[in-house]
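Lab notes, practical 5.
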Amino acid sequence: MLRLRRHAGNRPVLLGTVGFAVVLALTACGQAGAEPAIPQGAGFSSWVQNGSGGRYVVPVVTGRAAALSAPQLGTVQTDSNCTPDARGLSHCHNIIALANGSQIEIVDNHQMSIHRCLRPGETVRVSPMHDRWVTVQVQRP
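Output from the prediction step:
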């Protein structure tokens, strides 16, 4: 049931179900945009640092990260969804064609204003980490 109470200054304060629902909705939105946890062994403590020296730690969202038993060369095919979030971090989606004929899709969490995106046509070395995480190292020509 909705109740309005008069607050000092004679302004109504909303209490009850609607107020609770608003708080839950705001909390859910904040969590939906939350950054993924940085995996153990990443070598950095903030996604702002991801991409330093051309090395990116990324989760594999489609494809078979577990099938990578050793580093492989690949070619970046796409770079999309790079609009920064409210914290200035981009969560770019990249498809990488691997030398073994398979492909993976990754999400590159990084601050584009500090470390650039992966570029289509670029050669990278993809190395397995653990679970669904890999490192992607840009190969210099």
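Observations recorded by the TA: The beta strands are 3-7, 11-15, 55-62, 72-76, 90-98, 103-110, 123-128, 133-138. The chain has two domains: 3-32, 47-138.
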